[in-house]
Amino acid sequence: MQSDRRDAIDLTVVWATxxxxxxxxxxxxxxxxxxxxxxxRVLATSAGWRMFKQxxxxxxxxxxxxxxxxxxxxxxxxxxxxxxxxxxxAEHVAIRPVIEAxxxxxxxxxxxxxxxxxxxxxxxxxxxxxxxxxxxxxxxLVQRALTSEQWGRFGHVHAQxxxxxxxxxxxxxxxxxxxxxxxxxxxPLPPATRAACTDEWLPAYLALDRWxxxxxx
Length: 217
Description:
Elements: H1 2-8, H2 12-33, H3 39-45, H4 47-74, H5 79-107, H6 113-145, H7 148-163, H8 166-174, H9 179-186, H10 191-207
């Protein structure tokens, strides 16, 4: 029974999201350390920064609303595991104001470039640490303590959050994924949505140089 329950919990969407977020953090580092680019202009006007924020918000709010509460209920009376969940939630909370501060710096023509660099470094460090913390701590808990029904509920909420910007976020999520991951992520979609993704959304995404200035609209 335990093996059957674990088999029902497929973590593909979480691993794919984390891989995509790390991919974008690498782009962010490249842009903010490049000597021949204006990071403020690139981030303020590029589609890449907007997509990154959309995807991160969708992923984190799905966890906040549908994953952590279910785990907390199942782990009642286990203070060590509950402390881990509290720490992960606190990391979500800590990341949000850093993104807001980056946006404020991007909107200020007089912003100090060094401050923008410090903020993006803080964002990259904080998010990378959080992803590792979640993978090492929370995902094993999901496998041990969550029911397949609860995991299905999280998957449904996560899909809903992505669906709000599906033409952008679904290709973003698939970018760079291997064939097996792409197949798993596309399989649950309605045929019309799957066809739109492969025939329209992916080609449009691939044609967009999302981390170039002026691509945000």
